[in-house]
Design goal:
Layout lengths: L1 H4 L13 H16 L2 E2 L5 E10 L4 E5 L2 E2 L6 E3 L6 E6 L1 E2 L4 E5 L2 E6 L14 E6 L9 E6 L2 E15 L4 E11 L15 H20 L4 E8 L7 H8 L8 E7 L9 E4 L5 H14 L5 E4 L8 H5 L4 E6 L21 H15 L2
Parallel strand pairs: 9-10, 13-14, 13-15, 15-18, 16-17
Antiparallel strand pairs: 1-12, 2-12, 3-4, 3-11, 5-10, 6-11, 7-8, 8-9, 12-14, 16-18
Helix pairs in contact: 5-7
Length: 353
Protein backbone atom coordinates (compact mmCIF):
# COMPACT_ATOMS: atom_id res chain seq x y z
CA UNK A 1 0.00 0.00 0.00
CA UNK A 2 2.85 2.41 0.81
CA UNK A 3 4.41 1.64 -2.56
CA UNK A 4 1.10 2.30 -4.33
CA UNK A 5 0.39 5.60 -2.58
CA UNK A 6 3.96 6.84 -3.09
CA UNK A 7 4.02 5.94 -6.78
CA UNK A 8 4.23 8.40 -9.67
CA UNK A 9 0.60 7.65 -10.60
CA UNK A 10 -0.50 9.70 -7.56
CA UNK A 11 2.18 12.37 -8.24
CA UNK A 12 2.89 13.18 -4.61
CA UNK A 13 -0.83 13.21 -3.70
CA UNK A 14 -0.82 16.93 -4.27
CA UNK A 15 -1.83 19.80 -6.48
CA UNK A 16 -0.79 18.96 -10.04
CA UNK A 17 -1.72 16.11 -12.38
CA UNK A 18 -4.83 15.50 -10.19
CA UNK A 19 -2.63 13.75 -7.63
CA UNK A 20 -4.74 14.44 -4.57
CA UNK A 21 -8.02 13.72 -6.35
CA UNK A 22 -6.71 10.38 -7.61
CA UNK A 23 -5.61 9.49 -4.09
CA UNK A 24 -9.01 10.49 -2.68
CA UNK A 25 -10.82 8.34 -5.24
CA UNK A 26 -8.48 5.43 -4.50
CA UNK A 27 -9.00 5.66 -0.74
CA UNK A 28 -12.78 5.95 -1.11
CA UNK A 29 -12.71 2.75 -3.15
CA UNK A 30 -10.57 1.08 -0.47
CA UNK A 31 -13.03 2.11 2.25
CA UNK A 32 -15.85 0.61 0.20
CA UNK A 33 -13.88 -2.57 -0.47
CA UNK A 34 -13.18 -3.01 3.26
CA UNK A 35 -16.85 -2.49 4.04
CA UNK A 36 -16.75 0.74 6.01
CA UNK A 37 -19.86 2.89 6.35
CA UNK A 38 -19.63 6.50 5.15
CA UNK A 39 -20.06 9.16 7.84
CA UNK A 40 -22.41 10.97 5.45
CA UNK A 41 -23.98 9.81 2.18
CA UNK A 42 -20.47 9.64 0.69
CA UNK A 43 -17.00 8.90 2.06
CA UNK A 44 -15.79 12.31 0.87
CA UNK A 45 -16.12 15.50 2.91
CA UNK A 46 -15.32 18.23 0.39
CA UNK A 47 -13.75 21.61 1.11
CA UNK A 48 -11.49 24.09 -0.70
CA UNK A 49 -8.54 26.39 -0.06
CA UNK A 50 -6.00 28.48 -2.02
CA UNK A 51 -2.68 26.96 -3.07
CA UNK A 52 0.34 27.96 -5.15
CA UNK A 53 1.26 25.27 -7.67
CA UNK A 54 4.07 24.62 -10.15
CA UNK A 55 2.60 22.55 -12.99
CA UNK A 56 4.96 23.22 -15.88
CA UNK A 57 8.38 24.70 -16.64
CA UNK A 58 11.02 24.23 -13.96
CA UNK A 59 14.33 25.30 -15.50
CA UNK A 60 17.27 26.69 -13.54
CA UNK A 61 20.82 27.05 -14.88
CA UNK A 62 23.72 28.28 -12.76
CA UNK A 63 26.87 29.38 -14.62
CA UNK A 64 25.43 27.74 -17.72
CA UNK A 65 24.89 24.35 -16.03
CA UNK A 66 21.36 22.96 -15.86
CA UNK A 67 20.27 21.92 -12.38
CA UNK A 68 18.01 18.96 -11.57
CA UNK A 69 14.74 19.92 -9.81
CA UNK A 70 14.40 18.41 -6.34
CA UNK A 71 17.95 17.08 -6.30
CA UNK A 72 19.96 20.23 -7.07
CA UNK A 73 17.39 22.93 -6.32
CA UNK A 74 13.89 23.76 -5.16
CA UNK A 75 11.85 26.90 -5.59
CA UNK A 76 10.43 28.63 -2.55
CA UNK A 77 6.77 27.59 -2.38
CA UNK A 78 5.44 31.17 -2.30
CA UNK A 79 7.37 32.22 -5.39
CA UNK A 80 5.69 33.51 -8.56
CA UNK A 81 6.64 32.26 -12.00
CA UNK A 82 9.66 33.92 -13.61
CA UNK A 83 11.71 33.91 -16.81
CA UNK A 84 15.02 35.80 -17.03
CA UNK A 85 18.79 35.71 -17.21
CA UNK A 86 20.82 37.71 -14.72
CA UNK A 87 24.16 38.17 -13.02
CA UNK A 88 24.31 37.20 -9.36
CA UNK A 89 25.74 39.45 -6.66
CA UNK A 90 27.17 37.82 -3.55
CA UNK A 91 25.65 38.97 -0.24
CA UNK A 92 27.47 36.42 1.90
CA UNK A 93 28.75 32.85 1.50
CA UNK A 94 25.20 31.43 1.32
CA UNK A 95 23.11 34.23 -0.22
CA UNK A 96 23.12 35.80 -3.66
CA UNK A 97 20.83 38.27 -5.40
CA UNK A 98 20.08 38.96 -9.06
CA UNK A 99 17.60 41.78 -8.41
CA UNK A 100 15.10 42.67 -5.64
CA UNK A 101 12.71 39.97 -6.90
CA UNK A 102 15.15 37.11 -7.49
CA UNK A 103 17.29 35.53 -4.78
CA UNK A 104 19.49 32.44 -4.55
CA UNK A 105 20.30 30.63 -1.31
CA UNK A 106 22.71 27.76 -0.73
CA UNK A 107 21.38 25.04 1.59
CA UNK A 108 22.72 21.84 3.14
CA UNK A 109 19.32 20.16 2.69
CA UNK A 110 16.45 20.93 0.35
CA UNK A 111 13.10 20.81 2.15
CA UNK A 112 9.92 21.76 0.31
CA UNK A 113 6.40 22.53 1.54
CA UNK A 114 3.03 23.93 0.42
CA UNK A 115 2.04 27.61 0.26
CA UNK A 116 -1.44 29.12 0.24
CA UNK A 117 -0.24 32.53 -1.01
CA UNK A 118 2.14 34.06 -3.57
CA UNK A 119 4.71 36.78 -2.87
CA UNK A 120 6.50 39.11 -5.30
CA UNK A 121 9.89 37.49 -4.75
CA UNK A 122 11.28 34.32 -6.30
CA UNK A 123 13.79 32.43 -4.17
CA UNK A 124 15.77 29.47 -5.48
CA UNK A 125 17.37 27.17 -2.90
CA UNK A 126 20.37 25.22 -4.19
CA UNK A 127 21.97 22.14 -2.66
CA UNK A 128 25.45 23.47 -1.89
CA UNK A 129 26.89 19.93 -1.86
CA UNK A 130 26.04 19.58 -5.56
CA UNK A 131 27.38 23.00 -6.53
CA UNK A 132 31.10 22.91 -7.36
CA UNK A 133 31.62 26.64 -7.95
CA UNK A 134 30.42 30.03 -6.76
CA UNK A 135 27.16 30.98 -8.52
CA UNK A 136 27.84 33.97 -10.80
CA UNK A 137 24.88 33.95 -13.18
CA UNK A 138 21.43 32.43 -13.36
CA UNK A 139 19.07 31.52 -16.19
CA UNK A 140 15.58 30.70 -14.99
CA UNK A 141 12.24 29.76 -16.55
CA UNK A 142 9.64 28.64 -14.01
CA UNK A 143 5.86 28.45 -14.31
CA UNK A 144 3.51 28.82 -11.36
CA UNK A 145 -0.28 28.71 -11.16
CA UNK A 146 -2.13 30.09 -8.16
CA UNK A 147 -5.38 28.18 -7.54
CA UNK A 148 -7.79 30.23 -5.42
CA UNK A 149 -10.19 27.37 -4.65
CA UNK A 150 -8.40 24.06 -4.83
CA UNK A 151 -10.97 21.32 -4.18
CA UNK A 152 -9.97 18.65 -1.69
CA UNK A 153 -11.73 15.93 0.32
CA UNK A 154 -11.38 14.29 3.70
CA UNK A 155 -12.14 10.56 3.42
CA UNK A 156 -14.38 9.56 6.33
CA UNK A 157 -15.75 6.13 7.27
CA UNK A 158 -16.68 4.10 10.33
CA UNK A 159 -17.66 0.72 11.77
CA UNK A 160 -20.67 0.65 14.09
CA UNK A 161 -20.05 -0.58 17.62
CA UNK A 162 -21.81 -3.66 18.92
CA UNK A 163 -22.69 -2.43 22.44
CA UNK A 164 -22.01 1.31 22.72
CA UNK A 165 -22.21 2.63 19.14
CA UNK A 166 -22.44 6.25 20.34
CA UNK A 167 -18.96 5.97 21.84
CA UNK A 168 -16.32 6.42 19.14
CA UNK A 169 -12.63 5.68 18.86
CA UNK A 170 -11.12 7.62 15.96
CA UNK A 171 -8.02 6.76 13.91
CA UNK A 172 -6.70 9.46 11.59
CA UNK A 173 -3.89 10.03 9.10
CA UNK A 174 -3.37 12.64 6.41
CA UNK A 175 -3.07 11.29 2.87
CA UNK A 176 -1.95 14.46 1.09
CA UNK A 177 1.69 15.28 0.47
CA UNK A 178 3.55 17.99 -1.46
CA UNK A 179 2.64 16.97 -5.01
CA UNK A 180 4.98 17.93 -7.83
CA UNK A 181 7.45 20.71 -8.60
CA UNK A 182 7.34 21.12 -12.35
CA UNK A 183 6.22 18.59 -14.94
CA UNK A 184 8.87 15.95 -14.18
CA UNK A 185 9.56 16.02 -10.41
CA UNK A 186 7.29 14.78 -7.65
CA UNK A 187 7.63 14.15 -3.91
CA UNK A 188 6.64 10.52 -3.10
CA UNK A 189 5.79 11.03 0.59
CA UNK A 190 6.27 7.39 1.61
CA UNK A 191 6.88 8.08 5.30
CA UNK A 192 4.90 11.33 5.14
CA UNK A 193 2.30 9.97 5.13
CA UNK A 194 1.65 6.91 2.99
CA UNK A 195 2.84 4.80 5.93
CA UNK A 196 0.25 6.34 8.25
CA UNK A 197 -2.55 5.77 5.73
CA UNK A 198 -1.43 2.17 5.16
CA UNK A 199 -1.53 1.56 8.93
CA UNK A 200 -5.00 3.12 9.13
CA UNK A 201 -6.29 0.88 6.32
CA UNK A 202 -4.81 -2.21 8.02
CA UNK A 203 -6.62 -1.28 11.23
CA UNK A 204 -9.85 -0.72 9.30
CA UNK A 205 -9.60 -4.21 7.80
CA UNK A 206 -8.93 -5.69 11.24
CA UNK A 207 -11.82 -3.93 12.95
CA UNK A 208 -14.22 -4.80 10.14
CA UNK A 209 -13.64 -8.49 10.86
CA UNK A 210 -13.37 -7.94 14.63
CA UNK A 211 -16.31 -5.67 15.62
CA UNK A 212 -15.81 -3.77 18.87
CA UNK A 213 -18.17 -2.53 21.60
CA UNK A 214 -17.43 1.07 20.56
CA UNK A 215 -17.75 2.42 17.04
CA UNK A 216 -14.43 2.88 15.26
CA UNK A 217 -13.99 5.84 12.89
CA UNK A 218 -11.34 6.32 10.21
CA UNK A 219 -10.47 9.66 8.61
CA UNK A 220 -7.83 10.30 5.96
CA UNK A 221 -7.32 14.06 5.93
CA UNK A 222 -6.41 16.29 3.00
CA UNK A 223 -4.63 19.64 3.31
CA UNK A 224 -2.39 18.73 6.25
CA UNK A 225 0.74 19.95 4.49
CA UNK A 226 -0.96 23.28 3.74
CA UNK A 227 -1.57 23.95 7.45
CA UNK A 228 -3.76 21.21 8.98
CA UNK A 229 -6.61 22.48 6.79
CA UNK A 230 -8.54 19.21 6.43
CA UNK A 231 -8.64 18.42 10.13
CA UNK A 232 -9.55 22.00 10.97
CA UNK A 233 -12.41 21.85 8.48
CA UNK A 234 -13.66 18.58 9.97
CA UNK A 235 -13.59 19.95 13.52
CA UNK A 236 -15.48 23.05 12.37
CA UNK A 237 -17.92 20.91 10.35
CA UNK A 238 -17.99 17.57 12.23
CA UNK A 239 -19.71 14.57 10.67
CA UNK A 240 -19.87 12.91 14.10
CA UNK A 241 -20.39 14.62 17.48
CA UNK A 242 -16.97 15.54 18.81
CA UNK A 243 -18.23 14.89 22.34
CA UNK A 244 -18.76 11.22 21.42
CA UNK A 245 -15.08 10.68 20.51
CA UNK A 246 -13.57 8.89 23.51
CA UNK A 247 -10.05 8.90 22.09
CA UNK A 248 -8.27 9.77 18.84
CA UNK A 249 -5.01 8.32 17.53
CA UNK A 250 -3.35 10.27 14.73
CA UNK A 251 -0.69 8.52 12.67
CA UNK A 252 1.91 10.60 10.81
CA UNK A 253 5.50 9.64 9.93
CA UNK A 254 5.25 6.07 11.22
CA UNK A 255 7.39 4.28 8.62
CA UNK A 256 10.50 3.78 10.77
CA UNK A 257 11.01 2.89 14.45
CA UNK A 258 14.61 1.78 14.97
CA UNK A 259 14.88 4.43 17.69
CA UNK A 260 11.38 3.99 19.05
CA UNK A 261 8.48 6.40 18.79
CA UNK A 262 7.16 9.63 20.28
CA UNK A 263 3.68 10.46 21.53
CA UNK A 264 2.55 14.08 21.29
CA UNK A 265 0.05 14.97 24.07
CA UNK A 266 1.54 12.27 26.31
CA UNK A 267 1.95 14.78 29.14
CA UNK A 268 -1.53 16.20 28.49
CA UNK A 269 -3.17 12.78 29.04
CA UNK A 270 -0.86 11.03 31.53
CA UNK A 271 -3.33 8.25 32.42
CA UNK A 272 -3.81 7.30 28.77
CA UNK A 273 -0.04 7.48 28.21
CA UNK A 274 0.53 5.20 31.18
CA UNK A 275 -1.99 2.77 29.70
CA UNK A 276 -0.21 2.85 26.34
CA UNK A 277 3.10 2.10 28.03
CA UNK A 278 1.57 -0.75 29.99
CA UNK A 279 0.29 -2.40 26.81
CA UNK A 280 3.68 -1.90 25.18
CA UNK A 281 5.56 -3.42 28.10
CA UNK A 282 3.22 -6.40 28.42
CA UNK A 283 3.53 -7.26 24.73
CA UNK A 284 7.19 -6.17 24.34
CA UNK A 285 6.52 -4.12 21.20
CA UNK A 286 8.23 -0.75 20.65
CA UNK A 287 11.78 -0.38 22.03
CA UNK A 288 11.19 3.09 23.47
CA UNK A 289 8.18 5.42 23.77
CA UNK A 290 9.07 9.08 24.27
CA UNK A 291 6.72 11.52 25.91
CA UNK A 292 6.04 14.91 24.36
CA UNK A 293 3.67 17.69 25.31
CA UNK A 294 1.12 19.64 23.34
CA UNK A 295 2.11 20.60 19.78
CA UNK A 296 0.27 21.94 16.75
CA UNK A 297 2.24 19.72 14.38
CA UNK A 298 -0.34 17.33 12.92
CA UNK A 299 -4.05 16.62 12.55
CA UNK A 300 -4.72 15.79 16.21
CA UNK A 301 -4.31 19.44 17.16
CA UNK A 302 -7.69 21.00 16.42
CA UNK A 303 -9.45 18.02 17.99
CA UNK A 304 -7.50 18.52 21.21
CA UNK A 305 -8.38 22.21 21.14
CA UNK A 306 -12.05 21.19 21.15
CA UNK A 307 -11.61 18.85 24.10
CA UNK A 308 -11.14 15.56 22.25
CA UNK A 309 -8.44 13.45 23.95
CA UNK A 310 -5.87 12.56 21.33
CA UNK A 311 -2.36 11.20 20.76
CA UNK A 312 -0.21 11.94 17.73
CA UNK A 313 2.21 9.06 17.18
CA UNK A 314 5.35 9.21 15.05
CA UNK A 315 8.29 6.81 14.84
CA UNK A 316 12.00 7.60 14.84
CA UNK A 317 15.24 6.37 13.32
CA UNK A 318 15.89 5.06 9.83
CA UNK A 319 16.17 7.24 6.72
CA UNK A 320 16.27 10.99 7.29
CA UNK A 321 14.30 11.85 4.12
CA UNK A 322 11.66 14.47 4.90
CA UNK A 323 9.76 16.78 2.53
CA UNK A 324 12.15 15.88 -0.27
CA UNK A 325 12.25 13.65 -3.35
CA UNK A 326 14.02 10.89 -1.40
CA UNK A 327 11.07 9.90 0.83
CA UNK A 328 10.52 6.76 -1.25
CA UNK A 329 8.75 3.48 -0.53
CA UNK A 330 11.74 1.35 -1.53
CA UNK A 331 13.95 2.91 1.17
CA UNK A 332 11.34 3.00 3.94
CA UNK A 333 12.02 0.16 6.42
CA UNK A 334 8.57 0.01 8.12
CA UNK A 335 10.51 -1.35 11.11
CA UNK A 336 7.70 -1.13 13.66
CA UNK A 337 4.69 -1.42 11.35
CA UNK A 338 3.35 -4.65 12.89
CA UNK A 339 4.23 -3.73 16.47
CA UNK A 340 2.55 -0.35 16.14
CA UNK A 341 -0.56 -2.07 14.80
CA UNK A 342 -0.62 -4.38 17.85
CA UNK A 343 -0.01 -1.47 20.22
CA UNK A 344 -2.97 0.51 18.85
CA UNK A 345 -5.29 -2.51 18.98
CA UNK A 346 -4.20 -3.25 22.55
CA UNK A 347 -4.57 0.36 23.65
CA UNK A 348 -8.04 0.71 22.11
CA UNK A 349 -9.11 -2.50 23.82
CA UNK A 350 -8.08 -1.09 27.20
CA UNK A 351 -9.88 2.20 26.51
CA UNK A 352 -13.12 0.25 25.91
CA UNK A 353 -12.87 -1.78 29.12
Amino acid sequence: MVKTLASASFWGRGYTKDGMKKAADFLSAEYKKIGLLPMETDFKQEFAYPVNTFPGKMLVEINGKKLIPGKDFIINNESPGIKQKARLTKIDSLNFVANPNLHVQLKDKLTWSVATAVTNETTIEINRKNLKEIPREISIDIENKFVENFKASNICGWIKGTKQPDSILLITAHYDHLGGMGAETYFPGANDNAAGVATLLSLAKYYKTHPQPYSIGFICFAGEEAGLLGSRYFVENPLIPLSKIKFLINLDLVGTGESGMTVVNASVYPKAFSLLNKVNQEQKLISKINSRGKAANSDHYFFTERGVPAFFIYTQGGPSAYHDIFDKAETLPLTEYHDLFKLIVGFNQRIME
